[in-house]
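[job 4471] stage=fold_predict status=RUNNING
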Amino acid sequence: MTIRNRIALQFSLIVASILIFFSILIYWVSATYRQEEFYERLKNKARTTVRFLIEVKEVDRELLKIIDHNTLTALFDEKVLIFDGQNHLIYSSVDDQVIYYRSTFLNEVRQKKEIETHSGPNELVGLLYQQNGRDLVVLASAYDQFGKSKLENLKLTLGWGLLVGLSITIGLGIFFAGQSLQPISQINQQVSTITARNLQQRLDEGNRQDEIARLAMNFNDVLYRLEQAFEQQRSFVSHASHELRTPLAALKSEIQLGLRRPLTVAEHQDILTNLLSDTDRLIGLTNGLLFLARALETSNQVTRQPIRIDEVIFLAKDELVSAKPHYQISVDYENIPETETETLIEGNEELLKLVFVNLFDNACKYSENQTAQVRIGTDSHFCRITVRDTGIGISEQDIAHIFEPFYRASNALDYQGFGIGLSICAKLIELHQGTLTVESEVEEGSTFTISLPHL
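[job 4471] inference complete, writing structure tokens
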């Protein structure tokens, strides 16, 4: 069942339930009111008849029957019976009409003094009339032809009204459900045209206020992220292919040169040295690509545990200095942490160490004195690490792109590297819910700042 039909059915059932409930309520109230009103008329008739018979001396039984027969307010199939204390019938308004009642009914009337019940299709009331020591029981019965005729008309009117109301409700339910879901149908049509080749296409966001518009806006956000992911993937493959081509071409050239003619031992050593250099470069590039691919994975795959960020910094320093002893890295605190938790963060030690190794290596590599200054600062919420150098700096145009994979600043092309390190650092810091920013001036140096929330 489609959503439109389901909404129309639910709407119709709700309205139908309301209509049926109020129809039954109206009919029940009308029927109750008719019955109470008719019982009251029967009581008045019974009281009037017994008073005429007992209290008015000039009126005897025959005259009272004539009055009952010719009164303008006589009810349909009306009859009044009056019984004395021994349950003997002393008056009957109509001889050819019968009131059906139980033999014990007269005694029940004497006990309760007033009873409302039925005698076949007729309403029946029983009253106890007491005067001058006499206890008389009066029974009055009649058929409410006019009231029940009105109830039948009301029932017919309510039935047809209910049928017409339900028909209109179902039609309007289908119509308005279709109107309400039309934007979703349009979204479905637009979504069906979107493929991997046209991810730049966007859905119509309408008034940007209702739920369907917000759905379109959220879907457009998803499309934007997908477009970025696809573009990032294409860029990754393109740059990786380009970067891998250079060392592979160099390897091939060296091998072809070695095979072209017989070589001396010294020439063999030169070729092997070049091959080793190109192989190391290829290994470095491959490792960078692997780290970048790992950094682009989802954050829920990264295992975290409480670690001291200052200890990770010293480990990264020792690892880099042991590999490149000519690098000089100084680490200091901007302020003394007030609590030991201010340098305690939840993260992955190996990944964060990779970030610091990359930043320290860049700072030393691009500085003429191959020196990096590291400062650790804390506050009530964040732990901040700044890495400062006095190197070649970065221009304003390049700062906007330095965290993109394989991007290299124009003044850094003469230095060894592939443009992967900073993009890895930015992604790993993002996975730790932190930020990585940079301030730089050309020929003055750069300052990278990492902010990580501490425990």
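[job 4471] summary: Residues 77 and 413 are 117 Å apart (CA to CA).
[job 4471] exit 0
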